[in-house]
Specification:
Blueprint lengths: L2 H22 L5 H6 L6 H12 L2 H14 L4 H25 L4 H8 L3 H33 L4 H51 L4 H4 L12 H11 L12 H15 L3 H4 L8 H37 L9 H8 L3 E3 L16 E11 L5 E6 L7 E3 L4 H8 L4 H44 L1
Antiparallel strand pairs: 1-4, 2-3
Length: 443
């Protein structure tokens, strides 16, 4: 069965599951809508929190960043994971102990100030709208590549699904939908990682596989091979960072502090019955998050090595179908600068900024492009966000695995978008209008 048909089946099945859960878990009271009635089991809340935390950034973008940055990309792993630890240890239990519905609610009562509540509302809305835009870009990329739907149409479909189960079920519906989405996204992330680890190293555990010898009998370790190719093409050693230790520390600390305040994750800890359950669900979530976060460096390494082996110095006329598919949606671009018909992939920017695509084809078959960087000999532009989605195609995995990854990417984006949408709605309805109206009444 072809990729597009399988993708429609997988995506359709998961969307049907999400809608079914939302109907089953629809909110019946105000408490259900805002905090799921404080009745969510710690394990279920841990799974929902993990799904909320692991957005399209974690599922799609993080491994792509590490793939291109090498060791320097570890700051995202440490920063985002460390931010969650700060949130779980220093914020979540105390917010639950305070017994309010939302973070602006907590801030307003804690400082006895309606102005402080208003500032918290503005911050929550600004963060949520900014973050949800990133999730929808992930949805748009998935729809445009695998379902051959216009990006705008794909975003509208995704938001319609989220809107349906967020409005119908509130926090209760979103919680149990996110439990299902966690299962989908972690399965979709791990299955291709395990397959590729076996193919490349013979080790079924990706976390160990990317530190193992290659399965080709050469006796060369995977990272050693990757270092050699990276150096040969001018990128520098993959395992040696270009940033100083001080830079890494500062950026990691900034990521930790920033992500500790994500409003859609904080509200998850209001849903459990007791403060002890908030701590317990935070522990569950950390373990569940670690499954993906410890696998991401392996996925990044596999994708980078496969990319070098598949694309570098390859004849464009013989490039695999996946390359031209991503080229058709403007996320890979190649310009034959030396007119030899081969893709010269070396260090340097092939284009000034992002390439501008035009209709027609060049002499070597490449799409006609503008913004070429004449000072660089590199001929290839790759959008980093495609590395996880394209990885199964690059590795030649079965079509059903590719379709599974598509469903996982959508699950990651939609789970976070649902949490953000709830934050936006509660900030406006509960904090801005209801609480401010009460305060004005008693003034």
């Amino acid at each position: 069965m072809d990729i597009q048909t399988l993708t429609y089946i997988f995506v359709g099945a998961t969307f049907t599951l999400y809608i079914g859960i939302a109907i089953w878990a629809k909110a019946g009271t105000t408490d259900d809508f805002y905090v799921a009635g404080h009745h969510v089991h710690p394990l279920a809340n841990g799974m929902a929190t993990a799904a909320d935390w692991m957005s399209a950034a974690s599922f799609i973008s993080m491994a792509g960043l590490i793939s291109f940055m090498g060791r320097d990309g570890s700051m995202y792993l440490m920063g985002w994971t460390g931010g969650y630890v700060l949130l779980a240890l220093l914020l979540a239990p105390y917010l639950r102990k305070f017994g309010k519905f939302t973070v602006p609610d907590f801030v307003g009562d804690r400082y006895y100030s309606n102005s402080a509540r208003t500032v918290a509302i503005i911050c929550a809305l600004f963060i949520s709208f900014t973050y949800v835009a990133g999730q929808m870009r992930g949805v748009g990329i998935v729809f445009s590549r695998f379902l051959e739907v216009d990006i705008t149409t794909g975003v509208m479909i995704g938001m319609s699904i989220v809107f349906f189960y967020a409005v119908l079920g509130g926090m209760k519906g979103i919680t149990y939908t996110q439990v299902a989405q966690y299962c989908v996204l972690i399965f979709a992330f791990m299955v291709p990682a395990i397959f590729i680890s076996i193919l490349m190293t013979g080790n079924p555990v990706p976390q160990f596989g990317f530190g193992s010898e290659l399965a080709d009998g050469s006796g060369v370790y995977l990272l050693e091979k990757l270092n050699g190719l990276s150096t040969e093409l001018g990128f520098g050693q993959y395992t040696s960072g270009r940033k100083s230790t001080f830079d890494m520390f500062c950026i990691t600390a900034a990521l930790m502090v920033g992500t500790a305040g994500l409003p859609h994750v904080i509200v998850r800890f209001f849903t459990v019955p007791k403060v002890r359950d908030a701590r317990l669900s935070a522990g569950y979530a950390l373990v569940l998050i670690a499954i993906l976060y410890t696998t991401a460096p392996a996925v990044a390494s596999f994708a980078r090595l496969n990319l070098f082996n598949t694309v570098s110095n390859a004849e464009y006329s013989t490039t695999p179908e996946w390359f031209k598919n991503w080229e058709d949606i403007d996320l890979i671009a190649w310009r034959d600068k030396n007119n030899d018909g081969k893709i010269q992939y070396i260090a340097g920017n092939a284009f000034v900024g992002k390439p501008v695509f035009d209709s027609g084809r060049g002499a070597s078959g490449e799409r006609i492009l503008a913004n070429e960087n004449g000072a660089s000999a590199n001929e290839l532009y790759i959008d980093q966000d495609i590395m996880v989605l394209a990885n199964p195609e690059i590795a030649g995995l079965p079509n059903w695995v590719i379709a599974l990854v598509v469903a996982g990417g959508l699950a990651a984006a939609l789970s976070t978008a649902a949490g953000l949408l709830l934050v936006i709605s509660t900030s406006v309805a509960h904090d801005l209008f209801k609480k401010n109206a009460i305060a004005e009444h008693y003034r």
